[in-house]
Design goal:
By secondary structure, the protein is α/β, with parallel strands linked by helices. It contains seven helices and eight strands; from the N terminus they run βαβααβααβαβαβββ. The protein is globular and about 50 Å long.
Length: 191
């Protein structure tokens, strides 16, 4: 089997939408550096959103917010702002993608509060989880096609053609990562 086609910087047929943001917005070390010293933490999201067009919301990974919280985040950010939301670790680390239907439905029921500001959903897999294409396929199938899904496998066994084929079948993308001087493969699987 030939290796999965890789996207290169020379691929002129691909349109690129690049949004620059950070992983989270609630960092105390940013007070007095990015956030004005007197700005209450309750207003940090608005300040952040005035500078960046996107953010990765990490807190849902640890504790899934309520629908009302997602709605508040949407109301506090300008039109066109995008939230990339890290899916709950219950799905990725506890269940390890096993029986994903209910966890995905619960996540989406709450995240719908972001409305049009919901960007990609990040499935960050545990570093000890070896490739399981059947679980990945079932998990991706649990998401409606309109929801953009990005998968960040952290075990090297995931970088195989069968995974890229499963991602492509669901119009999902592999996460581009750079960690400890190593980079993940650049493979185009999504529109």
């Amino acid at each position: 089997m030939a290796p999965w086609p890789r996207t290169t910087h020379d691929d002129r047929s691909a349109q690129l939408m690049l949004r620059v943001g950070t992983s989270g917005w609630q960092y105390r070390d940013w007070r007095g550096v990015f956030y004005p010293s007197g700005l209450a933490t309750a207003h940090w999201l608005e300040h952040y959103a005035a500078t960046f067009p996107t953010v990765e919301a990490n807190s849902p990974f640890y504790r899934l917010p309520t629908l009302a919280t997602f709605q508040q985040w949407a109301a506090r950010t300008p039109s066109g702002f995008t939230f990339a939301v890290k899916a709950s670790r219950y799905l990725t680390h506890v269940r390890r993608l096993l029986d994903p239907t209910d966890p995905v439905a619960t996540f989406l029921e709450r995240a719908r509060g972001l409305g049009s500001k919901l960007g990609p959903v990040l499935l960050q897999l545990p570093p000890t989880m070896r490739v399981d294409v059947a679980r990945l396929d079932a998990t991706l199938a649990a998401f409606p096609r309109a929801v953009r899904v990005v998968v960040e496998p952290r075990h090297p066994s995931w970088h195989v053609n069968a995974v890229y084929e499963a991602l492509a079948a669901h119009d999902a993308a592999p996460c581009l990562w750079d960690r400890r001087g190593q980079r993940g493969p650049v493979v185009r699987t999504a529109s």
